[in-house]
Predict the structure.
Amino acid sequence: MTASLLSPVDLYCERLSTAFWAEPVNALSNLAFLLAAYFLWRLPLPQERGGVVMSRILTLMVAVIGVGSFLFHTFAQRWALFADVIPISLYQVLFLAFYVRQVARCSWLVTMGWVLFFFVVTYGVGMLPDQWLNGSVASYGSAWLFIGGLGVYHWRMRKVEPGILLLATGVFTLSLVLRSLDMVACQYVSIGTHMFWHLLNGVVLYLTTRAFILQTSGPRR
């Protein structure tokens, strides 16, 4: 078991060895998540205690995602891969649950129903071939669908900054494209394109979390 967790993982263009700093650009580009968390922390807090707790949790998760990704792109071992993907998955579930509960004002039963539906869609999308777009569809297709869906809802219901989640969807689309091109671009650019996935996703997480915080900070409509 220990040997399995310590086994090396090489998924991206920039890594050419098992050295700690074999992916310096990919590793350091995770600062985007820490910067996003910093600016999110400075936003006005919601009026309700529940909204405050949820906002702080989402903001901290953005920072944790950056730390987990940094660990993976430096240690590049199986345990670090878990440190990378688990916070990302947890953020997705928490954001959906918090948004449906606190912004859409649905009951906890309905909220859990949406979370269950997300798991079903994620499982279905995860069955798609890993070769498609460098695994981006299988890994993040459900997140893209749900951000887009929430974006339409946010806009149609005229929430605070109504286009913010649609903007996040657009940025996420671009980040998925650049993540998918990493190995293809490797023959032309030695460091690949994965660092743009980090930089753009820092923006995506800032926008999604900002949408939640600002909507729950203002007066109810």
About this structure: The chain has a mean pLDDT of 94. The CA atoms of residues 114 and 132 lie 27 Å apart.
